[in-house]
Amino acid sequence: MALLEVKNLVTEFHTEGGVARALDNVSFTLERGKVLGIVGESGSGKSVTAFSLMNLVDKPGLISGGEIMFNGENLRTASVKRWSQLRGDRIAMVFQDPMMSLNPVMRVGAQLAETVAIHRKASRLEVEQQVLEALKRVGIPAPAERMKAYPHELSGGMRQRVAIANAIINKPDLIIADEPTTALDVTIQAQILYEMKHLARESGTALIWITHDISVVKDLADEVCVMYAGRIIERGPVAQIINHPLHPYTRGLIDSLPHAENHGKRLYSIPGATPPLLSLPPGCSFAPRCSRAKPGCGMTPPVFRAESREHRCFFPLA
Predict the structure, then answer these.
(1) Which residues are listed as membrane-spanning (predicted)?
(2) pLDDT at 175
């Protein structure tokens, strides 16, 4: 049985201008110890997926359909008390900006200790050892000293490592990371990616890694979901998606990456922009930006499946 099974998840935002469907029948599964990458441009629905999985969608947002099966339990029907038990214990999240998730007036050690104390009964010494171990696992040097520091006394990379330590400290079954390395330099980003992949393999923790950069998931994820305008438009094993994309949007994301062959040349960019959710074009949402669009794209493409791959395109790449 999969650890996480998302079935036809729908999240809407009810505004004065109408109903914006930020997630439109999103479905995927994730097994223990596996890493799932979710990629797409800003506005594609990646972060809304993360917040929906954590039941953190605020009004005017509403999760209006679908199922979130976690360890066989449908979290769509879970109570507020049950969610309080799960968050930070069995399911944890790493946010994009650690300064938004870390308390600026609490020392690092106290914040991690609080995460343990909420969900576990342990002595002060046991909690301190657990905090030290978590800081060591994310590669923080001199963890005993860092425990006494406030978040503003640490570098951006260190703060993000603390946020990750806070997520892993209770050894959750699932960690959702929402673009946690976007603001970090490439060296620190590479270290954190390596550590998170090692964590998933070592402890059996499942990981959802959300990013706008498809190159980030190339060496991290086992499977990748490509999102556009609230839908998963392509899904499959990461190597197959990178080497042989089927959807033109996925091909565009890959072509926009810098590499040795286009050194000194103008980088490719997908023409146009992601459409507003309140005024999506009929049929395929990507059609107005797609060079392969034909009259048939005026209809909404279903999910086409073949072996381990699936996509939403009437005219996929060969």
Answers:
(1) none
(2) 94
Instruction: Say if residue 104 is preceded by a cis peptide, omega within 30 of 0.
Output: no
Strand-strand pairing, 231-237 and 223-228 = antiparallel
pLDDT of residue 183: 67
Is beta strand 206-211 parallel, antiparallel or unpaired with respect to 35-39? parallel
- 49 burial (CB, 10 Å; 0-12 / 13-18 / 19+) is buried
Q: Which two tokens stand for residue 122?
A: 């342990």
At 141, give phi and psi (nearest 5°): -75, 150
**What strands, in cross-sheet order, belong to the sheet with 91-94?**
91-94, 174-178, 206-211, 35-39, 223-228, 231-237, 309-311, 304-306
For 245-267, b where at least 16 C-beta lie within 10 A, e where not — what string?
Answer: bbbbbbbbbbebeeeeeeeeeee
Domains and their CATH numbers in the chain:
4-90+172-311 (3.40.50.300)
Distance of CA 200 to the CA centre of its chain: 15
Task: Give per-10-residue mean pLDDT for the chain (318 aa).
Answer: 94 94 96 95 94 94 96 94 94 85 93 92 90 89 93 89 91 91 75 80 90 88 96 97 96 87 80 92 94 92 93 93
Q: Which of 262, 232, 229, 268 is nearest to 247 (CA)?
A: 232
